[in-house]
Amino acid sequence: PSFRHGIRWDRAQALLAREVAAFVQRNPRSQSLSQRAQKHLMFGVPLHWMNDWGTPFALQVAKAQGVDITDADGHTLVDFCLGDTGAMFGHAPTVVVQAIAQQAAQGMTAMLGGEDAAVVGELFHAHFGLTHWQFAMTATDANRYVLRWLRAASGRKKLLVFNGCYHGTIEDVFVDLVDGVPTQRDSLLGQVHDLTAHTVVVEFNDLAALEAALAKGDIACVLAEPAMTNIGMVLPEPGFWEAAQTLIKKHGAALVLDETHTISCGPGGYTRAQGLQPDALVVGKPVGGGLPCAAYGFSAEWAARVVHAKRTAPPGHSGIGTTLSGNLLAMAAMRATLSELMTPAVYAPMLALSHTLAEGLRTRIAQRRLPWCVTQLGARSEFQFRTTPPRNGSEAGDALDSDLEHLIHLALLNRGVMITPFHNMMLICPSTTAAHVQQLLDTFDNVLDALCHG
Ligand code: PMP
């Protein structure tokens, strides 16, 4: 028989058939709602990514509270996906629900700020250390704006990213190393510009390649997650960021850290937890407690250059911003989230439970001698289909197997546990308890038994 990642593939296929049948049987109401939505929604869902789950049709949500999702058929699922991080502080967190209910009754958007604006600026400074902030609705937009500001402020055109990165649908980042050659990602739709003209890509943890690229003197900024999370997780090697920061500074580029996922490491992200000193920082997804919000900040030095670029530009459209960015509702949501949820006291049990989960997964993988490993980044962890943690995007990408991932996710879902549809990510929120973690581990055991023994 043939094996994939230590799994007998004929057994996996047989299990898949059983799990698909079980899902259909278990979710009649989801199936009929999903059929109804096919008529007037393209792809049958509000966003086509919602079909990226390994389910035969899209599961329909009735409500989501804390760590629980109740689906349309009335099952309660323990949610370790948490909206792929948007709900990392739990679904419908009370403090945010109250803050936005109160603000909604007093106006949602006016293209003006109020008291919350100054307070939110102070909160972001206190959390992340950077001095000057602006807001967007999504992390994608925040990254796009930072890149535009830094190109304008530096007069340099090029962006440097790490191979296998993801920073939202900002076009510029979709360049991969294919056999060492920068290549535009072929899955991009409707993209007509040559992205390789202004995007430079090197492997993560490769200081020599980083230095060689920076030495040309044309890189405006390096945009990076402090630890990669979007091609599977890749941690920086000891000393990588210290050396990289020095190189970036030496060559006059700016370092932008995208903390949208690594905010799982603590109230100031990986940056604060590890004492990094970026020139700019982006964070989106959970910063509004689930409401669409994102923020980006600059150091005082780069903020001065950015402001100068704006003040000396011809009057007219800057091409940066959207009408609802920084709206009254968003500011109220971020104020509540940063002051009440992004605190050391809220994070401490999340980090401890995430450690328990990662250790528990390791034990179960080792018991079956599967060639898999587990990586943890604060409240986020992930199992990967290789024996040792990957050192860069190429190694991490080689370990992805969407067929096997989808099978495991579907089998977990049928047993009441939900993990992220993209690779094998699991997040802990403030409402996750030790019992929930144990439930995931027991279910994981159960699914591995079905996979390994048929
Ligand atoms: N940055 C990072 C690191 C991300 O992981 C993502 C989304 N996965 C984004 C930015 C984009 O977030 P959004 O889709 O909310 O714009």
Automatic annotation (TrEMBL):
Pfam family, one: Aminotran_3
Entry keyword set: Aminotransferase, Pyridoxal phosphate, Transferase
Transmembrane segments: none
Matching InterPro entries: Aminotrans_3 (IPR005814), PyrdxlP-dep_Trfase (IPR015424), PyrdxlP-dep_Trfase_major (IPR015421), PyrdxlP-dep_Trfase_small (IPR015422)
One Gene Ontology MF term: pyridoxal phosphate binding
Protein's name according to its UniProt entry: Aspartate aminotransferase family protein
UniProt cofactor(s): pyridoxal 5'-phosphate
Superkingdom assignment: Bacteria
Family under the similarity heading: Belongs to the class-III pyridoxal-phosphate-dependent aminotransferase family.
